[in-house]
Structure formats: structure tokens, C-alpha cells
């Protein structure tokens, strides 16, 4: 009884920021175990990254309390931060290694890039909306994410100057797989991309490049914002 009262007093005098961070850490752990592991994601590096990256830092402040819920959230400019499970699922399917260099198309909030950056050496990410690109660059400086490189531009063309890439991840639904992205993928590399129409069905597609052969595999149905062009 006395210990319980002591804990209450100690908690009362903790700075609000520390109390919030503790609550966020608890919610993040629940997210990993109950939303992600429960659905079958088992890659250790992916689970560790999802447990490490503070998702609440990548959503608008008024939505922080929903940051670890099992759903996407709006981030402005008609864009969203993806559902945590989908972020983890797509990451796992790339079969990443620490020495890999990754291209992401559709930076958005920067959350997916931050998860990738926990696993691999370098992340290159392209965002078509100037305001989002600028905002996410500023966020990465605050979070000291030095292995994330952001470019504002049309993701259809990838990032030719930094190619080839070990893996490519696309976070917007395209009507077809952009040929420049296939060209910028290393032999043996993997790409994951949602393919489908804005108002029709969409599926995640896994693309594997084997010398001159391209193999595709349909994975799960999804719902992403459309792949926009300049």
C-alpha cells in the first residue's frame, strides 16, 4: 500500500514529456506484438525497427493519441501515414540486409524511411509534394537521421544518380510498374509496390529482378493513395 502511494507521488512529479514518452513506448510495444507479430510478421530486424521508431513523431500533433492505432492517419496534402502492419509487412518482404541501399518512392511523413533506416545503410527517398519533402527534411534533422536522403521530384523516374539499389519500396498505388524503377534495381533486387486504380482493387506486388528476367508475385489487397506525377 505504501509503495503504491509512493509510485503515485513519484509519477505526479515526473515531467509531462517523460510521462507521455513512457505511454508512447507502451503503446508501441502493443503495436508490435498485437498488430504486427500477431499477423505473422516475424523478421527480427523489422520488428526491432518498428519497436524503435517513434510513430507519434511522424503524425500531426493533434493526432498523436492515435499514432499507434491499427490504421492509416492523414498527414495533410491528401496523403496518409500507412497502417503500422502494412509498413512492417512491406519492409519484411524486401529481405533487407544491413549493407543495403534502398530507394523509397513517396516519402510522405518519413515514417517508412525511418523504419528502413534502422535496418539498412542508406535510404534514398523521393517525394513529389514540395511541402511534404521540406517538412520531412526538417523532421529528419531534428531526429538526427543521417542515413536518410530526401529529394523532391517525380518518383516515376526514381533516383538515377544513386542507382542501382538493392531494394525499392513504393508507397503509392500505380496503375503499372514504372520501367525506370525496374532499371534502377540491382540484379537479385526486390521491389514492393501497390498496383491498381484509385477507385478499384489494389494489390501489393513483389517484383524480383534476376539478370534479364523480371518476376512478379501478387501479395495482399491494399488501399493506398494514388501515385501522382508532375
CATH architecture: 3-Layer(aba) Sandwich
Query: Largest beta sheet, briefly?
Result: 7 strands, mixed
CATH fold name: Rossmann fold
Q: Return the string of H and E elements.
A: HHHEEHEHEHEEHEEE
Quickly give the structural class: alpha/beta
CATH class assignment: Alpha Beta
In the predicted model, the low-confidence regions spanning at least 5 consecutive residues are: 1-19
- Give the CATH H-level superfamily: Vaccinia Virus protein VP39
Helix coverage percent = 25-40%
Shape call: globular
Strand order across the biggest sheet? 5-4-3-6-7-8-9
How far the N terminus sits from the C terminus, by CA atoms, comes to: 64 Å
Number of helices: 7
Mean pLDDT: 90
The structural domain count equals 1
What percent of residues are in strands?
25-35%
> What is the total tally of β strands?
9
Nearest-angstrom radius of gyration? 19 Å
